[in-house]
Each structure stands twice: as C-alpha cells, then as structure tokens.
Amino acid sequence: MAGKILIVDDVATTRIVLKSRLARASYTVLLARCGVEALRLIRDEQPDLVLLAAQLLDCDGFDMCRRLRALPGFADLPIIMTSAQADLALVRDALQAGADDLIPHPCDETDLLARVRTLMRTRDAGRDLLVEEDFGLAEAGAAFAHPGRIGIVTADRETALSWKVTLGRHLPGDTLLALAPEEALAAASAANCPEAFLIAADLRHRNEGLRLMSDLRARTGARHAAICIALPSERPSRVSAAFDLGADDLLVGPVHRPLMAEQAALRLRRLIAKKRSSDRRRENLRTGLRLAVTDPLTGLHNRRYAMPQLLRMADRARRLGQTFAVMVLDLDRFKAINDTWGHLAGDTVLVEVGQRLCRSLGPGDLLARIGGEEFLIAMPDTTLAAASRIADQICETIRARPVVLGGGNGVIPVTASIGLAIGGDSADTSIEELIDRADHALLDSKADGRNQVTVFRRTAA
Q: At CA 79, angle to CA 73 and CA 80, rounded to 5?
C-alpha cells in the first residue's frame, strides 16, 4: 500500500472528492469532520500525511496545524493545508503555522498527487534514518541554528543578485550566493556546498533549471541539499515534473514581490531545518553502525565485524588460489592482573595491547577483540612462514615493554600466547573450523608454558 492519508474537512463533498482521487492512487484514506476527530485518528492510526482544511467547524485549521506540530512524535508529519482561496497571505500563514504547503481546493489532481508523493518520499527517507531507539542515540534537541548557505540560480546574474537582495531582507542571518549554473555545479563539489538551492525552472532555456537540479543530485556534495524550484506560473504538468524529478518544494510566482519573497524565505528555512534533521539522523546512523561493530574499550573491531570480513577474505583466497593466516591471541594470566591490580588496570592493559597490535599489522590485515582478553588477527595472502614470523614479533612486542599505569601507579609485565592456522589450502574448511584450529593451537601454547606461538598441525589433538 502506498501510504495512509488523513483528510480533515467539515465539507462532506470535499472529503469524498479528495478520497476518490487518493484512493485511485492506492492510498489508504481516513476521514475526519472536525479537529477533535482528527486528533483521535492521528494518535490511533498514525497517518503518513494529513490534508487539513484551513477552516473547520470546531477550530481554526492554522491553530490545529500548530497543535499537530507540538504533538510528541509528529513534528515531521507532512501536512498540506487546503482552502477555497490560496492567496499569498494564506500560504504564508500556513507555512508559519508549520504546514508544508497550502493548496487551493478544488485543485488539479496531478498537482495534488505530485505534492503528496514528494512529501511521502521525504517522510519515508527520514524514517529509514530513525535509528535513535535501536542504538540509544536519541536525537538531541535543536542545535544552535547557525546561519544557512543558500545558492540562488537564475537565468542571469542580474536577476540572481536581485533575488539575493529581496530574500536577504527575510533571511538576514543567512549567506545567500548568486550563482550561475556552472558555479552551482562547482559549489556542489566544494567542501562548503550550499545547504539549499533556489533554482529558476527556466534558465537560458526552458526547463534547464530542472536539468540542473538533476545534475546537482548526482554530485556527492549536493546529494542531500534541499532544492526549491521557482516556477513562473502554476501549470500542473510543470509542477508534477518538478516534484517527480526531485524538487523538495516549489515556489510559484515572481520572487521580487514582497509576499512571495517572504514565502520563499519560509520555505527555504523549513527545507534547511528538515535537511539538518536528516543530516543529524544520518550521522547517528553512521555512528550507530560504527558502534555496532566496534569494541567500546579498545576501539578495535568486534566479532560482529570480524566474522563477515574473515569470510570475504576466505572467499577471495579461494578464488585467487592464495593462503591466508588466522591467529587467536590471548593475554597470559590476565585474571591475575585484574585480581592484583584491579579492573581499571586490566582495561589499561587491554587498550595498550590493542594499540601495539595495530602498530604491528599492515593496512590490509584484520584485527578484532573477540573476548575478554582474546584477539583475532587475520592476514590475507600470507604464507605460513611469513605469518609465523609476524606472530613471533607480536609476542615479542607485547613482552618487551611492560604496560605503564597512569599516575605512577606501577608497571605490569604482560605476555601473550598465540595459536596460528592457515586457511585457503582446503576448499572445504569453514572459517569457524579455521578459528577452532587456531584456538586448539592457542591451548597448546598455553600448555607448553605460554608466551609463544603454536601452529596448528593436522595431527594435533
């Protein structure tokens, strides 16, 4: 199903017409005749978008919009207000109340569905980034609203400068850049790419602004930038095309008019706020994924990361006919370190050993902490002789220098035992079996006196 839309209107014929249009596009439609009923349905049914009449029998639609925005969990709920009149002042009031747009009713069906698709697509993209609960990374409150960077692209520099001056009266703290199309593309590749672009639909040629928008979307720096397309007039076919080609919002009419300039500023501010929210969520996602595969104490990768990486290493070795090495390293008598020096000292030892292991391995090698004092090392395209030599060096690196505790609290001698196994020489050996072989060799190292490397032999018990 395409999504769930709530229509809030006290006129039955309006509800029926809108429901028919949306149902034909496979949306599930909910109906409410008043504000009270709408609030109940929003809490119970959690629609994906709301079509809200500007005037209702029991409340003012603009006040209703503000109430919806204040509801916990519904701050980003797409809201399109509808009105028999949609003059510039009403559109401004709707945007100030928190609506995403205000459209006239009756309106063109193509126009309506294009706006709905865009808002639903943006909403779905935001939901894909909602990882706060999964990773315990609840989004912080609104950060300091630093000035925005907005690129203005028109057919000629004179017009761009005129728009810049007009918009600057409503965006006094923001940086407005008058850009030619070529300069916009260059800015999209720069480190300080504009957060939002206001682009005239027609530049040197008709619809050239839409083509520029597509080019900007292909640039890494501008991929997530907010883009508002300025149309000279509201023709449904052009509205639909602009939205479906990737516009986040539209501005219809001459920007130099005071109410239109104010509307443009409101739309750009809202787009930048949404972009920043998505950016924070995107960063939370990256952080969450990084935390999911990282050992919090040592900063090394954990088992969750190591196992699929080891599987890829094994697959590559089979394809290329190479061997690779797997080591399991365990610190000797680590429990005694914790018992004697305390767990904080034990943590210091683990961190220091992790750092020494990092310095001992190459950029293509795999290192992970897979247990309390146990580490996994894997080296691609490595022979037994080379792996044995590196394993001996690792043992010596750990043994040669005691771990110094902070605050002059002493030094702790540390040694490690290593079990080594070679993979890639048998197609029927799984990575689990390979790790198990290294584990068996590790036990032999422990049994033979610790602080040494033992290579797994097929004849070993």
A: 175
Q: How big is the chain by its Cα radius of gyration, in Å?
A: 31
Give the architecture (CATH level 2) of 149-291: 3-Layer(aba) Sandwich (3.40)
Asked if residues 322 and 424 have their Cβ atoms less than 8 Å apart, the reply is yes
CB atoms closer than 10 angstroms to residue 42: 21
Measuring CA to CA, which residue among 302, 269, 258 is closest to residue 98?
269
Q: Report the amino acid identity of residue 181.
A: P
Name the pTM for this structure. Answer: 0.78
Rounded Cα gap, residues 423 and 48, in angstroms:
52
Match 């080379």 to its residue by tokens: 386
Give the whole-angstrom CA distance, residue 433 versus residue 165: 70
Q: Which residue has the tokens 């761009």?
A: 160
Q: Is the dihedral of CA 98, 25, 126, 70 positive or negative?
A: positive
Listed in sequence order, the DSSP H helices in 169-257 are 181-188, 208-217, 236-244
Q: Does the pLDDT at position 141 exceed 90? A: no
Instruction: Examine domains 149-291 and 303-455 and report if their fold is the same.
Output: no
Distances (CA, A) of 174 to 167, 171, 230: 10, 6, 19
> What span, in angstroms and rounded, lies between the C-alpha atoms of 217 and 226?
10
Q: Tens digit of pLDDT for each residue in 378-388? A: 999 999 999 99
Looking at CATH, the fold of the domain delimited by 4-120 is given as Rossmann fold (3.40.50)
Task: At 255, list the tokens.
Answer: 């920007």
- pLDDT tens digit string along 303-315? 999 999 999 999 9
Closest CA to 141 of 313, 333, 280: 280
Pairing of strands 4-8, 28-32: parallel
Residue 448 CA, distance from chain mean position: 50
127 pLDDT band, cuts 50/70/90, is low
Of 89, 105, 43, residue with least CA distance to 68: 43
What does DSSP say about strands 226-231 and 79-83: parallel, antiparallel, or unpaired? unpaired
7 burial level (CB within 10 Å; 0-12, 13-18, 19+) = buried
Cα 222 to chain centroid, rounded: 15
Domain residue spans of the chain = 4-120, 149-291, 303-455
SS3 349: helix
Q: Please answer whether residues 450 and 415 qualify as being in contact, where contact means their C-beta atoms are separated by less than 8 angstroms.
A: yes
Q: Tokens 């149309």: give the residue.
A: 231
